[in-house]
User: What shape does this take?
Amino acid sequence: MDWLWIFFLHPVSFYQGAAFPFALLFNHLRIVDSFSPRARYLFLLVGGGVLALAAMGPYALLVFIPALCAVALVCSLGPREVHRLTFGSQMGWQTLCHLGLHYTEYYLQEPPPVGFYVALSSLMLLTQRVTSLSLDIRDGKVEAAWGGMGNRSSLSECLSKALPYFSYLLFFPALLGGPLCSFQRFQACVERSSPLQPGLSLRALTWKGLQIVGLEWLKVALRRVVSAGAGLDDCQQLECVYVMWSTAGLFKLTYYSHWILDDSLLHAAGFGSEAGEGYIPDGDIWTLETTHRISLFARQWNRSTARWLRRLIFQNSRRWPVLQTFAFSAWWHGLHPGQVFGFLCWSVMVEADYLIHAFANVWINSWSLRLLYRALTWVHTQLIIAYIMLAVEGRSLASLSRLCCSFNSIFPGVYCVLLLLLVKSKQKRN
Assistant: This one.
């Protein structure tokens, strides 16, 4: 059981697990309709505040301050201005916090406190909820808060109207992880009192728990294999491919475990898929591990974030929407050297993926060749994703340099060459 102990020693996993009893309590009290919607909002908000203080310590202020500012802007601005100003203030604050991390890691050469890391992760999720709310207000999906607050409104009335927004930005089931939940869905889940099927909920939670156990067992086994072999510093040619693939496998298994844990917490609190339509779990493991298309992998990896980026950046970009989307993703993640390179490389790979598969669909007609093509592109897709993942997770310039100088750079290089050839061919035809 060593692997289970190690998993729950991870700071985020530990506090997510500690929040489970309170999530179940909230869901039970909501089902039996034993407290009002206002009390439910307060329960979620206070729970978020306590969880933030426990997990982040004094660094919880890094999350509380922008949440307070966001609610103030939402309650004081009209639909036309609210998104632009909330987006600017939120990303500005998050960028300053990430620059503080850069200063500590790269200039002072000191490991930042664990609470600071947890706060930055929570701050990134807060940015998603803030911008999602402001976009909904701008698009008319959520009624603007400022319209219901006249000059004669008392302080208690203003706080009462702002309470759902505070609760949404800081509610504890989604504070440290989990797929993005829209404000409309959050509000509907809080104010609904329809009972769930206890057996179905218990079976779903049990199945998720078994999935976490299986993934953690695989991760422990793979970690032993990786630790026994060479690293990127001393590997040679094809050996580097194995090192890259196995190391990326560890990262993916870690993401899958945390996504299922986050999904389980939301499920326990009544915000999961059983609460109605609109719920998008972050990971579809089967699709991610079987797809032969980099573009599909990009859409399915961390799905709620991918849809958020599509709405926030891609749909509003007139030129180079893929490049702008991935560039913003690098900014949102913190602009570490490995992240900038990894996300820009990913954008180029997606563009190449579109052209390569469009070309193949026209010229490959036989069933046997199509099967061979699919197998080869699956292998290449998995290796390119592993390359990108090591660049992003390595973050530092030294780690990126080791990766780029390894034999593994040949895989994205092949797609870059094919992209150039297909673009030139397309230009000649036009």
About this structure: The chain is about 75% helix and 0% strand. Residues 45 and 167 are 5 Å apart (CA to CA). Residues 1-9, 196-200 have pLDDT under 50 and may be disordered. The two ends are 63 Å apart (CA to CA).
